[in-house]
Amino acid sequence: MLTEHAIDHVVLERGDVANSWRHERWDSLRLLTPNWQSRLPGYAYNGADPDGFMTMPEVVAHIAGFAAASSAPVRTHTTVISVRQIDGGYCVATDSGEIRCRSVVLASGAANIPRVPQVRQAVPQHIECFTAFDYRNAERLPPGGVLVVGASATGVQLADEIQRSGRPVTLSVGEHVRLPRNYRGRDVLWWMETSGVWSQRYDEIDDLERARRLPSPQLVGTPEHATLDLNVLRAAGVEIVGRLGAVRDGRALFSGGLANQFALADLKMSRLLDTFDAWGCNNAPHAEVGPAERFEPTHAPASPRLTLDLRSGEIRSIVWATGFRPDYRWLELPVLDRTGELRHDGGLVAGAPGVYAMGLPVLRRRKSTFILGAEDDARDVVGHLVRHLAQTTV
Q: 332 has which bridge partners?
């Protein structure tokens, strides 16, 4: 889009094109979004399986294909060391020299560093710990039981995969977002996009900060288009426990509020399905979608375990599926809040004229962190960037 406006620019990548997809994902991961939603500006999926879900090598090829087709001026294996303000703009220091520019777009994303809770420090040393960044497959885990902490998309997928490997799995569940894979004969993300839910703007959301903190929905992309929720995991033998609150004297302590967490997630899912139904009544021809559906409530264990002795040998490893956070240690600008998060208004970074962000949760729309959300956000951000450059002098 910068090329469309004849704006000279360069894209800096610390590794290869699509580096995080190449090196920071587990082996079996597939996109959560169906292939037909893998759209970038002027570039869309054109393979033989539009309703399927890309594997990681396919995602890498898709992004690399977009970079080649768009002739993006990418400098690979270039690590940014710092960004600081200078007269007339900014100085970007890299391991291969400095770049002086009038504007900067921060597109490093929100998943740079695993967000591991402080309770990790109290885990007995003999238990091996992994994050979603260094987990590759179940065979690399030690034999024996596994505690998976976190039940968003990553947590439920890893719990399912590890259980299938023959290792007993205990899944620690806190706040989560439950969704069926399919609804009324369509992928649930078809409903999210077509009904307009995903296009809701950030300035139309009542509690924006909460929306930006929501965990990713419990979805998995499989050839079978299977739903993966807590009922499915329990039926497969995964033990469900509450949120991990503390580790004291080698014992993991879990919250007793599972039933409330389940009821809240089920209620929110039902409300979302009501939104789809209301839209479908007015917009979707009956031939294109099936009848309205409702799903079984999430079944809470009768007596969920509240403690787990980590010294007993029952648990040999822990996988922390507790989310990610951005890494802005290289950003020498007064633009971070007290938690280290970027202060911005729809991608316009506060306190730094000419600095923009892309790829953050609910940046400008609910779909901002998905591949198909990039184009609309980029058009808005680039439009502001163009106006900024027109109003400033070198």
A: 84
Domains 11-112+326-391 and 115-324 in one fold: yes
> Distance (Å, rounded) from C-alpha 140 to C-alpha 353?
47
Fold of 115-324: FAD/NAD(P)-binding domain (3.50.50)
Q: Which contacts qualify for 280-284: CB closer than 8 Å, 24 or more apart? A: 280/184, 280/195, 283/194, 283/195, 284/194
Residue of 298, 299, 233 whose CA lies nearest to 269: 298
How do residues 207-255 score in pLDDT, each as one tens digit?
999 999 999 999 999 999 999 999 999 999 999 999 999 999 999 999 9
DSSP string for residues in 116-178: --GGGGGS-TTSEEEETTT---GGGSPSSEEEEE--SHHHHHHHHHHHHTT--EEEE--S--B
Q: Where are the domains of the chain?
A: 11-112+326-391, 115-324
> Residues 266, 178: contact at Cβ < 8 Å?
yes
Is 56 a residue whose pLDDT tops 60? yes
Among 158, 156, 214, 221, which Cα is nearest to 188's? 221
pTM above 0.90, yes or no: yes
Q: Give 129-188 pLDDT, tens digit per residue.
A: 999 999 999 999 999 999 999 999 999 999 999 999 999 999 999 999 999 999 999 999
**pLDDT band at residue 288, thresholds of 50, 70 and 90?**
confident
CATH assignment, 11-112+326-391: 3.50.50.60
Measured CA to CA, the distance from residue 276 to residue 84 in angstroms comes to: 46
Beta bridge partners, 155, equal none
Residue 94 to residue 10: CA distance in whole angstroms? 13
Q: Which residues contact 129 (CB under 8 A, 6 or more apart)?
A: 120, 123, 317, 318, 319, 320
